[in-house]
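dumping this here so i dont lose it again. seq + smiles for S-adenosylmethionine
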Amino acid sequence: MVDEYTADFPSEVIKEGKVEVLVPKLSAFGVVPSDYAPSRAPVFYNPVMEFNRDLSVLVFRVYQRLVKREISICEPLTSQGIRGVRYAVEVEGVNRVLLSDINHHAYELARYNVGRNNLQDKIVLEYRDANCVLNCNAAPKKRFDVIDIDPFGTPVPYLDSAFRALKNGGLIAVTATDLAPLCGVHAKACVRKYGGKPMRTEYCHELAVRLLASCIVQVAAKQDMGVKFLFSHSSDHYIRVYAQVSYGCQRADDSLKKVGYILHCFNCLHRETVHQLSGSLVCPECGIKMDYAGPLWIGSINDAAFIDAVFVENNMVTFRGKLRLDKLLSQIKSEAEAPITYYVVDNVCKKLCLPATSVQSFVSALQNGGYRAVQTHFNTRGIKTDAPAAVMQKTLKQLVCRT
Ligand SMILES: C[S@@+](CC[C@H](N)C(=O)[O-])C[C@H]1O[C@@H](n2cnc3c(N)ncnc32)[C@H](O)[C@@H]1O
Ligand SMILES: [Zn+2]
């Protein structure tokens, strides 16, 4: 039975995935669809995040099939409940969903949405602080298979509690929208929150993912857990990572071994990864002092086989954003094993005083020269390659001169 509920703010019913939910009517709050932070309504709701929610449904469906058992999911910052309701309906084999929000309007609206979808038997909803909810479920028998942290801004305040409440083999999904710190606009805030120095480079979105990943690894390690990153992406105004944990000191130590630094030469564009910072950081190519980002994750941020399974899953459902999902997943699969960092063709052209050129022809030119080269989802004009910076620049000059 649906609870008696009347929102005391303008609201409307929307359909997303397989569910219908009541959400704030954003037009009444002066929010236009292109706004990325429609937080002017009493309850947060962002239609742009449908893509993020669709992907999460796909990832959790694949995860559930991989672990071959019924799973429990916790989303402790649920707002109107759309995510949790979708997980309960669209992910097979879910036996328990725990949702919570600290905003009373959000809690009331989520309660209505749970009832509207007849999910009272599957979803427990609380009106409590996310850390309380997670810590109250940290006892071994209460822990979750999947925890989704989808906060305003940084997820860092919730990570410790989330790992405490995650089962061995569990999956944690984390969104971060505080890209100004992570991309180096507010570097001190990034060091404070994530424990690593960012760097304002053309590949700052990849650095953002790696800084978040390293923070996750270090939080997990404190609880003797190792982490494997299954899927990571940067889309719209946020980054998101999905990581599977394994209990054990050795696993934690192994993960920590993949935390290091990226050195970058702003003069010749050379970049390299190191495990420790030592010496004077002089560029081996041009002799100028390099800058660095880190500590950050220098291991793999994507698992090609897992992404393949998510790609297949996307063909079994009919989400509105199917084509965009297909594109993102195939791009990420192709770059899953590509070198760390990328070049943005326009930036390199500008530096070399060359006219802009086609990304595809640049990729082909590098491949014809015997190097690996792929486009990256991080930037539509970005390429990842193992060609040294000098070769990359020479190839670009030759390409532009030929065309
Ligand atoms: C970005 S919104 C969540 C959006 C939602 N996951 C979705 O997909 O639409 C973040 C939510 O966290 C809630 N929140 C903020 N701090 C919290 C806390 N300490 N504990 C629980 N909820 C909190 C806010 O009220 C807000 O509804
Ligand atoms: Zn250099």
